[in-house]
Amino acid sequence: MQGAKKRIQSKIEKELSKLSTTGEMLKGSISKVVLGGRKSGDGERASYLLTYKGEGNKTKTVYVEKDRVMEARRMIGNYRKAKRILEQIVELNVRLFKMK
What we know:
The chain is of the alpha+beta class. It has helices spanning 2-19, 69-99, and strands at 29-35, 45-53, 59-64. The protein has two helices and three strands; from the N terminus they run H-E-E-E-H. The protein has a three-stranded antiparallel beta sheet with strand order 1-2-3, with helices on one face.
């Protein structure tokens, strides 16, 4: 039993160390919005929006500059990675809690 606890604690420490290396994070998703169109004759322009759930579960939207879209997507990926790691840590802690 003691060996199993140590293995789980070791896994938790490993996951925590992964969490500390995830880097900058953004929550949400990026969408491309096409502005202008056939009627205006000006041609189409694309804008990018970051949409996420903020405080009070309200949907918030932030414009993302075209040259920062890849950066925002990377940061969203980091958030998703951190979320998976946290879920793993919770599962390991539940297993550990059951043993005590």
